[in-house]
Design a protein that fits this description.
Two copies of one chain form a homodimer. Chain A is of the alpha+beta class and about 220 residues long. Helix content of chain A is about 30%, strand content about 30%. In chain A, strands 1, 2, 3, 4, 5, 6 and 7 form a seven-stranded mixed sheet that branches. At the A-B interface, helix 1, strand 1, helix 2, strand 5 and strand 6 of A face helix 1, strand 1, helix 2, strand 5 and strand 6 of B. The structure holds a DNA duplex (30 and 30 nucleotides).
Chain lengths: ~220, ~220
DNA sequence: AAATAAAAGTGTACTTGCAACACTTTTTAC
DNA sequence: GTAAAAAGTGTTGCAAGTACACTTTTATTT
């Protein structure tokens, strides 16, 4: 299909990416959302989005959009879905591909986020968003939840070293239901790729809690047979 | 974001859809593939594809592409992934969204398929395809397999009435491994939305096998509580 | 120095779903 | 009537998951 004529009879469209950026804080999942502080549609909320540029891979466009907002460029990101309703963007026709990103909420660039008028909003308090962005959030949440039950992607929401209490709270937030402490710890103990660092965190308890880390080599080793 | 100037600084791209059309015959999954019978790239194989047109929903574009080839317009279809590598189409830059479709292989329009120089190819014999179409097939297969373990989507590959032996052969083809007959039938017996029609199929055995059908109302009722 | 408070950490019994496994029934064709 | 070919049918064992409550440790307070 290398004939120019073959392509030229077909229309072209803007290609956007919209990013559902998840964080985890105080036992709840949050999203990083932007509030427009200029007209039109001043005050309305949206996902972090942008357009795919010439010569730019679509995955790279999504990474760029997140990096421009957070300063972080090595995040865990996955494509969720492409939305192509004719009237989804009332301005012009735009096809948009949604990606989700997982952020350690301690690490992002606060200046950049402030400059973009972006805020972390806890999941139950997500406002009405522009266009079909609420649907994108629902789809991303469902997909992220599924992935979290299959692989330890959730760990990307925690700092490098974490306690089992934090990890349990994270999974409770992701799955939206309480988990039995003893059963949870039994399951984690079977995962040799979640290993004790030897360190102890005393910020959250008097007794102190053992710190753990994710060992990527061991994890990859387990599954790349 | 309703200002024209906001959009116009960004490039536009062709938006394609490519369809992985699954069928099931003689105990094996097949794909409906096209072989180019004209230059350039004469003889090369590809998925059924097409471009999204103005005023056309992207899902509708995928349905149109499959309908133009098979004559079938009410198939089970799901979006798989969007491929946006810069050089994925050596002609012009094209972003392509892959969909899979499930076809009752007895039902398609043979004239249309012949006119398009398309052929059913069994999965183990899939040839090298143009561009990134082999990767699309792998991704679609993985996604379809996952969905088949979660919901009875596979039934869309069978005729309205089917025997349990056919259904088991289908799931063996989808999952790529043999299934124990008694365990399989026990599991099916628990699904009240797979019900006996009362009919008997004698084409495949002397004894005759009970015919079953999928009851969509019962299925929806079970899960829409 | 003793009491208190607050989170970390630990084991067992029960239930349930999945996996392994082989023979009988029915009917047509020879 | 016998042979062939597919349909149909139950039980047992195992493993994974679930339910469930008390002890340990240490900083803070009195």
């Amino acid at each position: 299909m290398a004939e120019q004529a073959f392509y030229s009879v077909h229309p072209k469209f803007h290609a956007a990416v919209d990013c559902i950026i998840f964080g985890f804080e105080e036992g709840e999942l949050s999203l990083l959302l932007l509030q427009r502080n200029f007209e039109p549609a001043k005050g309305e909320w949206s996902l972090a989005g942008g357009f795919v540029e010439d010569g730019e891979n679509i995955d790279d466009a999504a990474r760029r959009v997140v990096a421009e907002l957070t300063g972080l460029d090595d995040l865990y990101m996955r494509q969720v879905h492409t939305y192509g309703e004719v009237e989804r963007d009332p301005g012009e026709r735009v096809l948009s591909t949604a990606y989700y990103a997982l952020v350690d909420i301690k690490k992002y660039d606060r200046e950049l986020v402030r400059a973009h008028n972006a805020f972390w909003i806890k999941l139950p308090a997500i406002p009405r968003l522009i266009f079909d962005h609420n649907r994108m959030v629902q789809d991303a949440l469902r997909f992220m939840r599924y992935q979290a039950t299959v692989k330890p992607v959730g760990i990307n929401l925690l700092p490098e070293e974490f306690t089992l209490t934090q990890l349990q709270a994270l999974y409770e937030a992701i799955l939206g239901e309480p988990i039995d402490k003893r059963n949870f710890r039994k399951r984690i103990a079977q995962m040799d790729y979640i290993e004790k660092t030897g360190g102890i965190d005393k910020t959250l308890s008097r007794k102190g809690a053992a710190l753990y880390r994710f060992n990527r080599e061991k994890y990859d080793g387990n599954f790349k047979i």
